[in-house]
Amino acid sequence: MTGQEMAGDGSGATAAARWVTGLFAPQVLVIGLPPVVGLMADGWRGGAWGLVASALCGGIPALVILTGVRSGRLDSHHLVDRASRTRPLLVAVAAVVVALVLLISLGAPRLLVATVTAMLAALTVTVPITLRWKISFHAAVSAGTVVVLAHVLPAAPTLVTGALVVATVCWARVRLTHHTPAQVAAGAVTGAGTAWAALSAFGV
User: Fold this and answer.
1) How much is the pLDDT for 79?
2) Contact partners, residue 76, CB within 8 Å, separation at least 6
3) What is the pLDDT of residues 3-18, one digit of tens each?
4) Closest listed residue to residue 137, CA positions, set 177, 191, 98, 176
């Protein structure tokens, strides 16, 4: 293989990694997951609750990040620079807390409340870590999403397919040199572990 061909292969792999990173970005998954969970838990009523959770848990942080990127305060909507993560993540924590209080007080489906609790649990663990070490939120959110989906979809195929997706996300983050293998592994374990713990606590 010539040097030019090798360079082309590398460029193609990098492009694929960027595509995976965008498709499975934390904001995308956090916005997309609650309506699916709500719909599976309680039909259209649950789906409507899921949209409320999406707007608060995903929409508000995404808007803050977008505003920061456009103003130049943030490097990208993937928050590559660890030092720039603190403010958007604190906003995310506050938004998830508000969503959780609202869902509980107004009687949203139990599984949806458990899902939002899992989001809060993941943030509670990962935010303090990222102040000192760049744990991967892409890996954490994708792994947590798989665990939640395994509770509303057939578990075995969901876990197998989900594991492949999480592995691909981890590869993409390392390929783009945004994270080390240790950082994506820690993110995946944290996301899966906190999601499992939260759902177990609710007995779902």
Assistant:
1) 65
2) 69
3) 433 344 568 899 999 9
4) 191
What's the farthest any 2 CA atoms get from each other in the chain? 64
**Contact between residue 25 and residue 78 where contact means Cβ atoms under 8 Å apart:** yes
Helix H or strand E segment including 129: helix 110-130
Sequence-separated (6 or more) residues with CB below 8 Å from residue 58: 27, 30, 31, 32, 34
- Taking the alpha carbons at both ends of the chain, their separation in whole angstroms is 53
What is the C-alpha separation between 117 and 125, in angstroms, rounded?
13
Low-confidence ranges of the chain (pLDDT < 50): 1-8
As a dihedral over the C-alpha atoms of residue 49, residue 202, residue 188, residue 77, rounded to 10 degrees, the angle is 30
Are 119 and 50 within 8 A, CB to CB?
no
H-type helices in 131-180, by residue range? 137-149, 155-175
Candidates 12, 5, 3; CA nearest to 175 is 12
Torsion of CA 78, 82, 86, 92, to 10 degrees: 30
The pTM of the whole model exceeds 0.85: yes
Instruction: Quote the CA–CA distance of 52 and 89 in Å, as a whole number.
Output: 19
Q: Tokens for 20, please give them.
A: 């995976």
Q: pLDDT tens, 35-52?
A: 999 999 899 999 999 999
Q: How many residues does the chain have?
A: 204
Cα-based torsion angle of the residue sequence 12, 72, 142, 119 in order, rounded to the nearest 10 degrees: 180
